[in-house]
Fold Hemerythrin-like domain-containing protein.
Amino acid sequence: MDPQHPSYLTGNHAIDVQHARIYRLLEALNVALEGGQGLPEAKRILAALSLFVVAHFRMEEAVMEQAGCPDLERHRVDHADIACRVESMVDAFREGCLRPEALAAFMSDWVDRHIEAYDNPMARFLAGQGAATPAAGPDRPRATRDLAAP
Ligand SMILES: [Fe+2]
Ligand SMILES: [Fe+2]
């Protein structure tokens, strides 16, 4: 997966920066799960990934709320569903009840599916509101700038 591929870019700079970080954590997780760095490293990355994903969801929801995004509630429900499933998959993996390949596939699948089905439509709405941020330009919306740093 390439986070710079057009299908993964929403056009909102702050959101794209966070997505790129999620993809980097997923790549590191895959390397660790494939045996390169072992189980302790995989568990460390999973803990960081779980925390960052929740922070990312909060940031997106704040941006959508401020922009008056009409799909906010549906989007929020998918975030909550993902957060629950990530938590239970990570718990199962920690307890040795889930194969590493199944965990890696689940993690990659939800990111791709959610960005395509929810984040890209959200980004199109934000772009229509003038909230697309191609770079750290002077007209970046305040909420987006404030929430950009993970
Ligand atoms: Fe997202
Ligand atoms: Fe989202």
Notes: The chain has one domain: 11-127.
